[in-house]
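Field reference: sequence -> structure
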Amino acid sequence: MTDKAETASIARRGQQLALALASAIRTAAYYDEGNAVMRQAVSSLARILAEASAENDAVSVGVRSHCVFVDKVRVPTSVSTYERFTFLVQLFETWSVGEMTFNAGLAESELMSALLLVSRTQPAEGGPGLSSMLAAKGVEHIVVEEIVQVEDEIDSVGLGSMKLSAILAYSAAMQLGGELGEVTGPIEPGMMRRVRHVTQAVVDEIIRDPGLVLSFTTIKDYDKYLILHSANLAVLSTVLGQRLGLSKARLGELCLAGFLHDVGKLGVDPDILQKPLELDEKEWEEIRRHPLLAAYTLLGNQRLTSSNMRAVVVAFEHHLNHDLSGYPTTEIKKSVSLFGSIVSITDVFDALTTARIYRKVNFTPADAMVEVIRRSGTGFDPVLVKVFTEVMGLYPPGTVVVLTGGEAGVVCRPPAVGLPLDRPKVRIVVGEEPGVVRDLCERKGSRFVRDILAVLNPSNQGQMPAVDPEVLRFMD
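Structure field:
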């Protein structure tokens, strides 16, 4: 067996074990020991564990850096396995467990006891750890490696207090965006179900902490632009929708519509999409077709529900301006829908904040906010622009700023509701305490402790550009 084939085989076995463990724990939460479904889940997991531990007399399952490992080998996840992997990661985190080792000789009765314990018991602060609780149940063949929780442990890598589930939800959205980008024919029903699953996970995380998920949208990569753009736009649109007070069901529809808005580009020549030079008129005509192509694609691939139709409408409208200029040309619409108006704003904002090789000057997030505000009333609904500005602040996440006192850093969170829009939270990069988050609303007496002196633009090698209308030619 080649190294590549062997690696793939190990990954498959590891994934099978991790998924079986997650499924068995979830089953134990609902069924008692004597239930046939529960006995079958335990028997199946015991068989997989026995096969995995046959060679080395033990097999371990661990969680590290938000990933699942089997025998120290990272197990790849996918959109279809995302939910069970998330469950397993969160379970390990809840119990403060880094690794569980299943030794040869593990009896099904021991495994049953362990599964019922971890699925139905909540660890108490200051109480016994999982290792002690398993021992009290007579479980001898499962060894638990417990970890000490460190407050805000991942601050050192610039992630603040991010929840693992939020990271995984956004990662799943990016992965699904990549898979959609490789579709060459109709979108299969199975793919649509996965899109709905992932977008709902994103909505759940935004409801839990919108500022946290918002910070992910600062990830930019020119080569993966279409993948990241779909995920970022879905997040930005949903955060804006949440501020507007939309219900969870409507947020799910908005997130779905945002994620699928650019599906029409699958029918556009990739050479045109990636062309670094000025487009000619024929190429522009091809670009302007993609909203119609998206609507046709979505209409032809699923039964018509209110949710699906909103995605169709958004795909058609996302390049229509508030004054109905833009494209495609329409004479029957009197206004752009709420979802279409939201997505048109977030589409332009994310496009502007991504460095593009055809631009003379690249935008900072602060520059992009200035441009969004400038287009209020003609390009965008002025009410939505006002709300979007409140959501993002005047210095959105990802803006690199210089502060008074010689510090420099990156905006990591916009101001909280009701606070000045030019007073975000900044993670220090250059200064006496790198990694520390400074709240620019902090005062000493009647004066603010820190102010923003300048905005830097790393993608322009230190330039600090003003908004240049000439670079707006390709807001895709």
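Note: Residues 456 and 464 are 6 Å apart (CA to CA).
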